[in-house]
């Protein structure tokens, strides 16, 4: 990290004595940084253990802004009424010699991003976006922010956890406050224009399809879009969006919890975030404005459990003026969500004809070079085990022993500089959520429980049970599957490639008979060209998708062990050629 000048960070009571109290703590030029120059500030109140209400802002005059928050804002805003009246409210003022308007707004945005990823923050009251373009001190932002955050951690470790812990959280990774890439920003603006045009023309049932492979930034784009639509809907100046009924759906238990937590923090009704079946079954949702669908490749295309329809795509499209669906055909994982190539093309054609087909092409998750990304593509999609490329930024290793791989993952996980690391496996060992006995993944001398079976350690705070699977402490002793890791990422992933993936005659092949995933191996009912119902196996198409999801979770590293002896030998030989 580049060396930066020391910021000035001071905490005082949130009352009318800000100037006096700051002058008691610092003097000279350091006082000027806080009282006469642009600053970032945080007002917070600890309501109870692990429960904070937070406001983040920036100003050119902290004394005047504090007076406004204490004397003017409570008349029209309930959040400021609460903070002004609470005897426990605190004000943190942050200054720096290089602060200018653009840098303070960028630091403010970064602070909101981090606050949205802190589990103890239950309400984040300043909800505007301040992403800045290029400016003189932009290259110093990250280094300055890290120094500020460490100082804040000294004040309150519960509200300001270690930076690496926040960055590893699923809340942080799905936050709407991430700075968008140019590609994402252009996509968001195009989508907003399409939505506005659909509203004005009273056109119905528009489909905007956002395609992109794993790690292309689809979730961040959708989260940002959902948040912006909510903001526009609350502003009477934006008549096209005002009072619009917008919903976010995702057919994934872990991911829907993350989105609901974000919505709650930002004051968005949690009922606007749900699983597709809940939305479809609600009689109030016969005609809504906008539906955003994350992980649309998980939508069901046949009836199942409480869903009595035939196709969730059709049911959602029929209920909304505009549907924005993010989709990756290589992440369809179950027969219930199976879509044929012809059906995918029809969706793409429909979106394209309406001017709503968008493709995200840049890989944002993996810090891997193009050669490493190509190696994974050829391995999964083409069945080719090529020479493992050298990559100084990405740790791709084939292990000779699964126990050694697990030890390496544990070491990475326990080092906060490396962050969240977990074991994963193809679904080739029996597992039942209703089984009272623990189900294990057993490979050689390695024997670990499948995901969601170990209990949290005694004394663990109750709120941790709401965290995503990989963020819970006990899951370091488990093996994750696509059911718990899809839609999330890890810093390092250790993937056990089970016996459903083999190497025969110089190619990777998939063996459905060795898979324990009934969502893949059971046959799917489809219509043939004559409209007749028939049952077909789609396992050969879905098993590569399972492997693709598992191998693309690691941000900084991927460790592999293959159960099939021929595949393991081919992988080790490919690694030796590096």
From TrEMBL:
<dbReference type="InterPro" id="IPR018647">
    <property type="entry name" value="SLFN_3-like_DNA/RNA_helicase"/>
</dbReference>
<protein>
    <submittedName>
        <fullName>DUF2075 domain-containing protein</fullName>
    </submittedName>
</protein>
<feature type="domain" description="GIY-YIG">
    <location>
        <begin position="36"/>
        <end position="126"/>
    </location>
</feature>
<dbReference type="InterPro" id="IPR000305">
    <property type="entry name" value="GIY-YIG_endonuc"/>
</dbReference>
<dbReference type="Pfam" id="PF09848">
    <property type="entry name" value="SLFN-g3_helicase"/>
</dbReference>
<dbReference type="InterPro" id="IPR027417">
    <property type="entry name" value="P-loop_NTPase"/>
</dbReference>
């Amino acid at each position: 990290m580049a060396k930066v000048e020391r910021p000035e960070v001071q905490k005082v009571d949130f009352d009318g004595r800000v100037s006096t109290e700051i002058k008691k703590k610092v003097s000279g030029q350091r006082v000027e940084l806080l009282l006469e120059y642009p600053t970032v500030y945080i007002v917070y109140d600890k309501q109870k253990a692990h429960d904070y209400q937070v406001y983040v802002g920036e100003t050119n005059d902290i004394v005047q802004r504090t007076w406004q928050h204490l004397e003017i804002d409570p008349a029209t805003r309930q959040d400021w009424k609460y903070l002004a009246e609470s005897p426990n409210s605190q004000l943190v003022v942050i200054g720096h010699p290089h602060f200018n308007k653009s840098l303070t707004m960028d630091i403010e945005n970064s602070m909101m991003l981090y606050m949205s990823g802190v589990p103890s923050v239950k309400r984040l009251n300043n909800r505007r976006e301040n992403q800045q373009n290029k400016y003189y001190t932009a290259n110093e932002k990250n280094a300055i922010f890290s120094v500020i955050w460490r100082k804040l951690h000294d004040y309150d470790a519960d509200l300001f956890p270690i930076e690496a812990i926040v960055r590893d959280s699923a809340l942080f990774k799905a936050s709407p406050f991430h700075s968008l890439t140019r590609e994402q920003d252009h996509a968001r603006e195009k989508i907003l224009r399409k939505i506005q045009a659909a509203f004005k023309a009273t056109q119905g049932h528009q489909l905007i399809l956002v395609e992109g492979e794993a790690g292309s930034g689809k979730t961040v784009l959708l989260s940002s879009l959902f948040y912006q639509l909510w903001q526009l809907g609350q502003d009477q100046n934006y008549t096209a969006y005002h009072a619009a009924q917008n919903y976010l759906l995702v057919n994934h238990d872990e991911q829907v919890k993350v989105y609901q937590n974000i919505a709650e923090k930002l004051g968005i009704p949690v009922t606007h975030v749900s699983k597709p079946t809940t939305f479809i079954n609600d009689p109030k949702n016969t005609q809504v404005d906008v539906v955003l669908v994350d992980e649309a490749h998980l939508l069901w295309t046949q009836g199942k459990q409480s869903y009595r329809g035939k196709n969730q795509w059709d049911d959602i499209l029929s209920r909304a003026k505009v549907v924005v669906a993010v989709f990756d055909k290589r992440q369809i994982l179950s027969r219930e969500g199976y879509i044929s190539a012809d059906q995918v093309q029809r969706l793409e054609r429909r979106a394209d004809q309406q001017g709503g087909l968008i493709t995200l092409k840049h890989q944002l998750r993996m810090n891997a070079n193009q050669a490493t990304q190509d190696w994974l593509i050829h391995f999964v999609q083409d069945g080719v085990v090529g020479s493992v490329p050298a990559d100084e930024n990405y740790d791709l290793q084939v292990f000779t022993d699964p126990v050694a791989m697990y030890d390496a993952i544990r070491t990475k996980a326990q080092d906060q500089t490396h962050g969240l690391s977990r074991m994963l496996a193809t679904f080739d060992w029996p597992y039942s959520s209703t089984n009272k006995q623990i189900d294990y993944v057993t490979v050689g001398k390695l024997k670990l429980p499948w995901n969601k079976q170990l209990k949290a350690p005694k004394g663990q705070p109750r709120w941790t049970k709401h965290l995503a699977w990989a963020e819970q402490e006990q899951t370091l002793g488990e093996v994750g599957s696509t059911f718990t890791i899809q839609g999330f990422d890890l810093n390092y992933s250790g993937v056990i490639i089970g016996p459903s993936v083999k190497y025969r005659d110089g190619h990777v092949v998939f063996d459905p008979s060795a898979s324990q995933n009934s969502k893949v191996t059971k046959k799917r009912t489809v219509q043939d060209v004559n409209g007749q119902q028939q049952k077909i196996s789609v396992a050969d198409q879905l098993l590569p998708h399972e492997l693709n999801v598992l191998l693309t979770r690691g941000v900084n590293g991927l460790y592999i062990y293959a159960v099939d002896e021929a595949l393991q030998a081919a992988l080790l030989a490919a690694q030796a050629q590096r």
